[in-house]
Design a protein that fits this description.
By secondary structure, this protein is of the alpha+beta class. The protein has nine helices and 17 strands. The two termini are 43 Å apart. It has two domains: 197 residues, no CATH class; 106 residues, no CATH class.
Length: 391
């Protein structure tokens, strides 16, 4: 029976890790400051490097792919597409410039690759997409007629005809549209559907987290109890989750003892007369400390710990509802993960992330300025970037 925040399940009842769709590589073939780059992604991955090395860019590319997999149009996934074009990329004779990104999703279908070519100028559109598994191309699209807002797609059939051809819109990810277009009558079609589902599920299970301490200090109205990316409504979420799973709440309190100054007996949410709710640290001696009195590092630490210990039922995200929680790995994208944190807080959060990663419940992809503090940490993949965006 499912338990915990957002319907997580105990480790002993979880499925083997290899059946959970998960992104294991991010490719930035030509994207902003990155060229020909491929980054391995583990259960916990830290992009480390100086300012301007492309850490934030890498996370932005992952988030854009996640938006596309959720059915968002290109303009939502890339609100500033020209900024994604490599700096020295020259337009062709028709004035066209663009960028290329991709990823690999592992799971029950084995490694499945997705590569996307996007034209940023003069019109934003997908001009090429390729979904493949091993040597088999499962979906391939190409722009045949620049005057039409469509690409020509061909997907694997392995029936009386080897492929099926049809137009697809040029502002949506074709892989995400395949369940609506592929009948699933032949073995080839079923393989296409399974691979597309693995990719879409792996990409869509994403929560972008960037805690904003200034917004966490004041009481908030009670609402849905779903945590926002900025963690502004943390008190409202605690009001909901504190009683949902005593075990997970206990782990959160334990984590706070390692990351907050002074004794921590409990973390509580208290409703106020005006319909708002505030969060407080119970010091265990009858004294309670409002979050407004905590430092920025303590608040960011608290927010990250809550995210790592919760699940998609609590986080404000749009996961694939047709897939049970037990068969998904939630990926948290955290830019500036180490911002305002002291060494002890960083190490404590990293241990928590690694522990959750062992169970397959949560994967963390984060950007940090310096990763020397986590050298040798088990279960952590560190990608060191230079100012030119190369590892």
């Amino acid at each position: 029976m499912a338990e915990g925040f957002g319907g997580t399940v105990p480790p002993e009842s979880r499925e083997p890790l290899d059946v959970r769709p998960r992104i294991t590589e991010l490719r930035l073939s030509a994207f902003a400051g990155h060229r020909g780059a491929g980054f391995p992604l583990g259960a916990v991955t830290l992009f480390a490097g100086p300012s301007g090395s492309g850490k934030t860019t890498a996370l932005a590319a992952y988030e854009a792919l996640a938006r596309l997999a959720g059915g968002a149009p290109l303009v939502e996934a890339f609100p500033d597409p020209v900024a994604c074009v490599p700096d020295r990329a020259r337009p062709d004779a028709e004035g066209r410039r663009g960028f290329r990104i991709g990823c690999t999703a592992d799971g029950a279908e084995g490694p499945v690759r997705l590569d996307v070519a996007v034209q940023a100028e003069p019109q934003l559109r997908i001009v090429g997409e390729r979904l493949s598994a091993g040597e088999i191309v499962l979906l391939q699209t190409a722009l045949r007629d620049p005057g039409r807002r469509a690409v020509q797609a061909a997907w694997h059939t392995a029936g009386t005809a080897p492929v099926t051809r049809a137009p697809l819109p040029d502002d949506r990810l074709g892989t995400a549209l395949l369940p609506l277009r592929v009948a699933g009558k032949t073995d080839g079609q079923r393989r296409v559907l399974a691979a597309a589902e693995q990719m879409v599920v792996a990409l869509r299970s994403v929560f972008v987290c960037d805690p904003r301490p200034d917004c966490m200090r004041t009481p908030v109205p009670t609402g849905s109890g779903r945590l926002l990316p900025g963690c502004d409504n943390l008190a409202d979420v605690l009001w909901r989750t504190r009683t949902e799973c005593a075990r997970r709440h206990g782990r959160l309190v334990e984590a706070l003892r390692a990351g907050c100054a002074g004794p921590v007996y409990d973390l509580i949410a208290e409703p106020l007369f005006d319909g708002t709710v505030r969060a407080l640290l119970d010091r265990g001696d009858g004294h309670r400390t409002e979050l407004a009195r905590l430092g920025e590092g303590e608040l960011r630490y608290l927010a990250h710990a809550l995210v790592l210990l919760t699940g998609p039922g609590v986080l404000a995200m749009d996961p694939p509802g047709e897939v049970p929680d037990a068969l998904r790995s939630l990926t948290v994208l955290a830019d500036g993960f180490d911002r305002s944190l002291d060494p002890g807080q960083r190490r404590s959060l990293l241990r928590l992330a690694a522990a959750m990663g062992e169970f397959g419940h949560i994967r963390l992809v984060a950007a940090v300025n310096d990763a020397s503090w986590c050298v040798g940490a088990e279960g952590v993949t560190v990608v060191h970037l230079n100012r030119d965006g190369t590892p």
